[in-house]
Amino acid sequence: MAGEAQADCLFCKIVAGEIPSTKVRETEHTLAFRDINPQMPTHVLVVPKAHYPNAAALADADPQLAGVVLAEAGRVAEEEKVDQSGYRLIFNTGSGAGQTVFHAHVHVLGGNAGLREKL
Ligand code: 5GP
Ligand code: ZN
């Protein structure tokens, strides 16, 4: 069924507490934790607790939850104090774009002047 935990999914295991993570925020339906290999001073991942393979699949199946994930990303940026300086939200989608974990997640990246360079 859509959204069900997948036994072989790293982020489902993090959500279940089977793999430790450095938690930043948690709500009923979302978890935010620090990326294990940070690319910027602030590098937090926000995931829905339910399993969807990528952000588009999440938004298609549960647009409200997709909105909650985005709102949580904004709250993380505020708490990390990068909301004023600026931050970037990235959803890698597909292995060709660098997606390595196929559980929807948004990268919250900030605290680096390099962000001023546009993609
Ligand atoms: P993707 O490349 O799929 O967009 O992002 C996956 C992210 O998960 C990568 O930035 C990677 O560093 C991070 N990651 C991979 N394994 C772990 C882990 O066990 N714990 C945490 N906190 N992050 C992880
Ligand atoms: Zn999962």
Structure commentary:
This protein is an alpha+beta fold and 119 residues long. The protein has a single domain (10-113), classed as HIT family, subunit A. The chain contains 3 helices and 5 strands. The chain has a 5-stranded antiparallel β-sheet, covered by helices on one side. Strand 1 and strand 2 (30-34) form a beta hairpin. The protein starts with 9 loop residues before the first helix and ends in a 9-residue tail after the last strand. Bound molecules: guanosine-5'-monophosphate and zinc ion. The site of guanosine-5'-monophosphate has 13 residues, from strand 2.
Features:
binds zinc ion, binds guanosine-5'-monophosphate, globular, alpha+beta, single chain
Helix and strand topology:
Elements: H1 10-15, E1 23-26, E2 30-34, E3 42-48, H2 55-61, H3 63-79, E4 87-90, E5 106-110
Helix pairs in contact: 2-3
This protein binds guanosine-5'-monophosphate (5GP) and zinc ion.
